[in-house]
Amino acid sequence: MQTNLSAALDIGGTKIAGALVDDRGRLLVRATRPTPADQDGATVFGALAEVVAELAARPEWDRVAAVGIGSAGPVDARHGTVSPVNIPGWRDFPVVAEVGALTGRRPVVLVGDGVAMTAAEHWQGAARGRANALCMVVSTGVGGGLVLNGRLHPGPTGNAGHIGHISVDLDGDPCPCGARGCVERIASGPNIARRALERGWRPGPDGDASAAAVAAAARAGDPVARHSFERAAQALAAGIAATAALVEIEIAVIGGGVAGAGEVLFAPLRRALRDYATLSFVRNIEVVPAQMGTDAGVVGAAAAAQQSCLDAFVPTV
Amino acid sequence: MQTNLSAALDIGGTKIAGALVDDRGRLLVRATRPTPADQDGATVFGALAEVVAELAARPEWDRVAAVGIGSAGPVDARHGTVSPVNIPGWRDFPVVAEVGALTGRRPVVLVGDGVAMTAAEHWQGAARGRANALCMVVSTGVGGGLVLNGRLHPGPTGNAGHIGHISVDLDGDPCPCGARGCVERIASGPNIARRALERGWRPGPDGDASAAAVAAAARAGDPVARHSFERAAQALAAGIAATAALVEIEIAVIGGGVAGAGEVLFAPLRRALRDYATLSFVRNIEVVPAQMGTDAGVVGAAAAAQQSCLDAFVPTV
Fold first, then answer.
1. Are residues B104 and B143 in the same domain?
2. pLDDT number for residue A309
3. Is A75 inside a domain boundary?
4. How much is the pLDDT for B309?
5. What Cα–Cα distance (Å) separates residue B166 from each residue in A186, A189, A287, B52, B245?
6. Spacing of C-alpha A25 from chain mean position
7. How far apart (Å, rounded) are the C-alpha atoms in residues A70 and A296?
8. Local confidence band at A315 (pLDDT 50, 70, 90 cut-offs)
9. Residue B184: what pLDDT?
């Protein structure tokens, strides 16, 4: 017997990726368009509609039982709308209704991209088999998601796990979100690079002033570059420890470009966790790199669609 | 038909309270002993056993279906043990097995005292009917618990919701837990009093240097006293906002002696929340006083026992 498929859509500021995904997480069909992020909302939706049309033209489409959307946030799963920071043409854009109309009224599930990444790592990656996990993306921004009691915890609006915007330094630098001292304000790639430059680190002859270049300098022993990663690690550790104290997680999975720095990030992160995760029930958190890579978005959107379909048949107490 | 009852035990550093509680949260029978906290573990258990014996001597005892224990932490629900900071004679004390032996092998559920208070507020108090809530006690320490998706979230070890020991000031003052800048280190009653004294506030002729006395001075307009409460409110706001960003809560319920300061605490807390809870999905958190008072511990222990008995009959996915 042929099993059901999920149609998965991953909406980001750079590209819109789609896939048909089977119940074991394999990508049978892919479709992608660049996101025309600087254009009006209808043009952005045109690109999304092209991705859907390309998937719907395939014979496998008839087996699609549900549609999952992972989107750059903020999202509002309650109202089925998205307002991605990097797509100004979409504000309260009713993506669930619009995609529903394109996909024959199949159930459509919307989650934030951090939640989608988490669903992917829990289903197929580094958080597989874990009952309580935090998964994070540390990149241009810092996002995340939670698995609690063995299940994805998207929260009522699909935004839960927003670890990038918890304040770990209540008197710290203002964050674009309006608060101060947020994890993202200290630990994101651009902030790692900014801090290194402010303290005197200079890029090499190629002019690369990215966090990856700071990581290379740190690996070569540059103390300012190392310090910038250590400060990022400290903020991440405080955020991970806070999450563990609040909901009890056994593992933190970290992906995204900054995690690509490897031990330059992970070694000070594990050290800093010993400073901040001190209570008996949080002391043994594992910290590991993510495994899902660039497919995490679509695989996770498919996972969210599948969990949601299961939920529909589960009696609630 | 007579309904089932729960036996509830609330173990604190000052007293051990017990009750028989019906399925509507009414306390039918009470028993209490002072906690001999400075004595050996067997003596402490003797006091607990007396509370149980007093309950078990009542005719209502035959209707007891389950036993709930809420204990000062840390607790370890996985192993059924407790190691309350303020009861040094109990370290990894097997309270679940010992109470089970006294209560005829009825099911025994163990949660931390913050989780128990949360169960009480969700069942009968200020978080009633709320699907996603944080409940806190701000007192000598700062504790808490979470309701997620309409259900208590104790976490695997029964300690979830430990908001007092999340760091909101990663370079801040060392906390007895080993970390720095924890919410409790800034917002607990003793820390409110300490900060006021350090900045020049002086108690009145009665010599009362408690947080309640600082609150009275703040109410009378003393700027140092006001500042100390404002700083506590800022730390609580950062912690509540972090919780909302991580799990999406709609309401924060605050009890404990410091919450008794009323608007001296709640007014700056609501202001500070506007500074830290800035994302669209966290912006509208309600902050309200707790309603359950001193019975929260036993009512909550009973609620945890009842939820756990229900869970036993719910199929898991």
1. no
2. 67
3. yes
4. 67
5. 17, 24, 18, 35, 14
6. 18
7. 10
8. very low
9. 96
CB contact under 8 Å between A169 and B170, yes or no, is yes
Q: Residue B92: which pLDDT band, with cuts at 50, 70 and 90? A: very high
pLDDT for res A314? 40
Interface contact flag, A245 B315, Cβ < 8 Å: no
Cα separation, A169 vs A165, whole angstroms: 11
Instruction: Give B47→chain A minimum CA distance, Å.
Output: 26
Q: Is the pLDDT of residue B18 over 90?
A: yes
Q: Could you tell me if B240 and B259 lie in one domain? A: yes
Distance CA B197, CA B193 (A): 6
Average pLDDT of span B41-46: 98
Residue B152 φ then ψ, to 5°: -60, 140
Q: In what order do the strands lie in the sheet with A27-34?
A: A27-34, A15-21, A5-11, A64-71, A108-112
- For chain A, how far is it from start to end, CA to CA, in angstroms? 33
- pLDDT confidence bin for A311, thresholds 50/70/90: low
Higher-scoring residue by pLDDT: A307, A155: A155
Q: Which residues contact A54 (CB under 8 A, 6 or more apart)?
A: A18, A31
Interface contact B279-A156, CB threshold 8 A: no
- Angstroms from A285 CA to nearest CA on chain B: 13
pLDDT greater than 60 at residue B313: no
Instruction: Please check whether residues B161 and B274 belong to one and the same domain.
Output: yes
Q: Could you tell me the sign of the dihedral formed by the alpha carbons of A213, A217, A219, A225, in that order?
A: negative
Cβ-based neighbours of B245, under 8 Å, separated by 6 or more:
A162, A163, A165, A166, B277, B279, B282
Partners of B240 in the β-ladder: none
Phi, psi of B61 (to 5 degrees): -55, -35
SS3 assignment, position B77: coil
What are A136's strand-pairing partners? A144, A254
Question: Contacts of residue A232 in chain B, CB cutoff 8 Å?
Answer: none
| Residues B142 and B175 placed together within one structural domain of the fold | yes
> Does some domain include residue B235?
yes
Residue A119 lies in a domain: no
Chain B residues touching residue A278 (CB < 8 angstroms)? 165, 177-179
Contact A279 B245 (CB under 8 A): no
Each residue of B160-170: pLDDT tens digit?
999 999 999 99
The H or E element containing residue A289 is strand A286-289
Whether residue B252 lies inside any domain: the answer is: yes
Do A139 and A196 sit in the same domain of this protein? yes
The angle at the Cα of A260, spanning A255 to A261, to the nearest 5 degrees, equals 130
Task: Give the CATH number of the domain where residue A44 resides.
Answer: 3.30.420.40
Question: Is A177 close to B279, i.e. CB distance below 8 A?
Answer: yes
pTM: 0.94
The DSSP bridge partners found for residue A29 are: A20
| Whether the Cβ atoms of residue A254 and residue A267 lie closer than 8 Å to each other | no
Largest CA distance in chain A: 63
For residue A313, pLDDT beyond 70: no
Count the Cβ atoms, other than its own, within 10 Å of residue A172: 18
Residue A221: what pLDDT? Answer: 97
Count of all residues that appear for chain B in the document: 317
Q: Are residues B143 and B266 in the same domain?
A: yes
> Is B155 within 8 Å of A74 when comparing Cβ atoms?
no
Both A262 and A149 in one domain: the answer is yes
Q: How many CB pairs under 8 A join A and B?
A: 154
ipTM value for the complex = 0.94
Give residue B229's domain range.
126-291
* Residues of B with Cβ-Cβ distance to A76 under 8 angstroms: 280-281
